[in-house]
Amino acid sequence: MTADLRAWLDEAAAAGELQDVRGASWDLEIGALSQVNYRRSAPKALLFDEVPGYAAGLRVLSGSVSNPRLLGAVLGMGWDQTDDSLMTALATAPGEWAERAPEFAAVTVEDGPLLSTVVSKPDIDLLSFPVPRWHEGDGGRYIGTGCAVVTRDHDTGRINLGAYRMQVQDDGRTATVNIEQGKHGAQHLRRWFEAEGRAPIAVTLGMHPAYLVAAGIEVPAHVSEYDYVGAMLGSPVRVVAGEVTGLPLPFDAEIALEGWVRPGDTRPEGPFGEWTGYYSGSRDPIITIDVERVYHRPDPILLGAPPGKPPHDYSYMRTVMKSAIITDTLRKTGLQGLRGVWAHEAGGGRSLLIVSIEQRYPGHARQAAYLASQLPNAAYMNRFTVVVDHDVNPRDLTEVVWAMCGRCDPQSDIEVMKRTWGSRVDPLTPPGALPFNSRAVIDACRPYERIADFPAVAESSTELVASVSKRWPEVAG
Which pTM was predicted? Predict the structure, then answer.
């Protein structure tokens, strides 16, 4: 399977999962229509064309991973996935992709569609593309929402892709890149600053959504996201080296840029409607890319993935992928009795984590909670980790809250961890404060010593429900 966006869009159209929208303005209308789309029962990928003020063919894509059929196809699993089949297919896949990534090392080529047009200083203008102002409270136009920011480890040369927001600055000549301190990209930049006083950086702004998935989840630090995408799709991806930095970019990407960042080169940035459902950033100074080159295909497509109050563009993708990755990681710790994990979309796929176990020994529930709350791929911005018994569906919030109300004694079953890994986008983090947070670990399992005599659940048995449903199908629906 190739990692070409245009080929994937042709498949999406044939599958009935792509909707063309013409005439929507870059100023709020694309963002508002994207929000309306995410909140439909079956959102589609939206391809915006004929944007006022821009030539036809300069397009913006959103909603690319907003339902199981779209996400399944992006992951190379076909166009017929459902929520359940996707979770089954992903039970071990993320870990296998990471393990097999070296077998699918990216291949560097000399040329590709991305190099069709190369723009250098002083002719660079990022606003020559129809960059949206996504939300009414945004402080500017954000070219980087569905982006993959490319950095290189100074000492090992390992390449990282990260999804970090980017606001256009200086009338289109530059862009800020807002990277949280604990992310691999930020670690790379800090080391370059220490060693050389500046750091190379590149960004792909329109590409196959598989890159967005890899950039937006916690791929292990020793694995390049390019190789991870290759393992995901079953074929090594092809990259071209940037003329200025040498950083690799997908050879068939739609739009990309490269340049340098320096510690003191910052611009006021934000606010921006973030995945928490609140605006973050209060014109804080954020590191700025000194853009040296812009590359693009003819009639390029900008990949948008604007966050906001869930559900938003990538909240479904993050929920599914993080749930699968955390499940796989917990199993590899040796945790017994694990039945399921769900990183709820209401918490942006990060802040509310539910773990279902079959209790096997005293302390088992707390062990599961502590492990899950601090796993490297689950710790960032986690706020509530809830452990439930195996008879509770972790994906059903009604069942989870029911378990909390009947099996959790707040005095003895809720514990709070302090000074844990938070975020600047957390609405509870005061401006200028270090981004610590706290998190509650909630044991909503039956007390282990009372499992045998705990009151029985008042509901009809599975066998009785099946029997009456068969006799009265008009009631069962």
Answer: 0.90
